Amino acid sequence: MITRPNRRNTGTRASLKAGLLLSAAMLAVALSGVGEARAFSLFGVHLWGEREEEIDNVQDPVRYHVTFSVTGGDDGLERFLRNRSELVNGENQPVDGDLGLLVKARDDLQILVGSLFERAYYGGLVNISIEGQNIEDIVGLPNFDRVNPVPVTVNIEAGPRFTFANIDIKDAPPEFDPAKLGLVIGTPAYSTTILSAAQDIVSKLKDDGHPFARITKREVIANHENATINVLIDAEAGPKADLGPIAIKGADAVDPEFIRTYSRLKAGEPYSPQELTDAANRLRTLKTFDSVVINTGDTLDENGQLPTTITVKDGKFRYFGFGATVSSIDGLGLEGYWGHRNLFGHAEGLRLEAGVSRIGVTDTLDSLDYAGGITFTRPGLFHPSGMFTASLAAGTENPDPYNAKTVAGSVTYSYEQNDYNTITLGSTTEYSHIEDAFGTEDYLTFSLPVGFDRDTRNDALNPTEGIYLITTAEPAYDFLNGTVYSSFSAVGSTYFSAGEDDRFTLAARLGAGTIVGGDSLEDIPANQRFYAGGGGSVRGYAYKSISPRNANGDETGGRSYVEATLEARIGVTENIQVVPFIDAADVSADNFPDFSDIRAGAGIGVRYLTGFGPIRLDVALPLDRYPGGDRFGIYAGIGQSF
């Protein structure tokens, strides 16, 4: 479904991708079977039953049984080693032949020894035997008895935990304090700490402009008499360097000069790995290239600069797609789109789209929501950090408070001030024919929206830290009615995480807005007033149903609003979250909220974390339901709710 971006409408429609419906159908089929109980997995997660052994690709399957024991060490050592052991983790899957079992055991020996080093046990002993024979004594091709699973025994003696005794970092700047690198005398000498320290030294030298920084020597000496470790790290910084001329390779349809400019890399600027990474990511976000790689030379050129090359591979410029959304309250929606990502050789974008929604919740075609539009984008116009956007959209919208037919054209220019801040300027002209609680009216409005956004989230679809702030000021004039008014709004979200791997995330959102000007509320077009309710607002209430009402109980929309949401995203497994939440809002006909009609909804949701974002399913109840309002709402989509 296509809508003109409008931050004044605080409620957004919830959506459920069609694939979820298919998954639900498959689950229903799986549950309908009777008779023998079978294993079942959903989205790759094993839910119940015995896992089926994958032996199709094993020509000579050999099953085995592991006896695993650890003597000594800290409380969590045995669990840590079991998790690392390939023999233990693969016990339910047969290996290919007797030799395959022997090879797996020998590989596991190296893994377990390295794992002991990770936990600072440098004097530990790992013994692995098969059918009572130490694997180091097995010569030639083995021949195991396969009447029963082959017995494999893993015995580990941890020994003492080693600590750092002496730290020597040579040829590194004095700011490299070993303690800041985790190398503290008297603390456990984890091998991972030593490796990380060496990597940190090289990274910091490169960040300081030394492209050829490297570790020339890393020596770890264990003293088994007193269980200590001496560490020697020898670093070589090499010369500082500036970037040389930026060469472009592989660009067939995209102007090389545009690539060079849009990357924001300039010859003569100091070498910075972060700047190179940012430049590559910036080019990838254009979605014009299949691949973007930035390489630097192994030596400096004759001018003492670092040769730098951007290598790209053009992608498929034309694309199309279809989508479906569904909600228990707002019905079914269908959409389709076609686009081009490189119209004139500067990554210009063109997108045509059309959609229809509210299928199933209305009996007439006139009551459906229709939308269509065309959008043109030109990245890097006037400045590498700029983006020009022009769009034309038309549609009908029929939420409970009003029926609107609109045609709107807009031009915007956004400027990325830095990695986090974006400033947007624009102009919008919109004609609308609206039927609402005040009657029928036509509007022809011209507005000048100004926006400032700040986004420090670590992940747009599944944030666990950072903030996201959207602010807008939009003065407007209605030519048909001579009304001058201005809208101001701000919405901020923040995230706090705790626990292992950020398993617990507390997310909070607060929004507020006001409209000033106009002699009365009806002078403001109904589709530009404030409302709340829906999957992106107060869940449990219908889309835009939270609103001031007239004497007949009809929604009028408001001049101001305040809205708050609090969620606790609790990871119960690596991929599944349980999310209790509460939403609340107050929408007022006055310029400032009077908090006389606060509506709240509460519920619980489930998130399944995937590589393309969380799959979201929420069930919410209105805590103060309107007469005749929905008793609950079900919302689904891709990504967290905010």
UniProtKB/TrEMBL annotation:
Residues 244-313 form the POTRA domain. Its main location: membrane. Residues 342-642 form the Bacterial surface antigen (D15) domain. It is found in: Membrane. InterPro entries: Bac_surfAg_D15, BamA/TamA_POTRA, D15-like. GO terms for cellular component: outer membrane. Pfam families: Omp85, POTRA. The keyword Membrane applies. It comes from the Bacteria. Keywords: Membrane, Transmembrane, Transmembrane beta strand. PANTHER family: BACTERIAL SURFACE ANTIGEN (D15) DOMAIN-CONTAINING PROTEIN, SORTING AND ASSEMBLY MACHINERY SAMM50 PROTEIN FAMILY MEMBER. This is Outer membrane protein assembly factor.
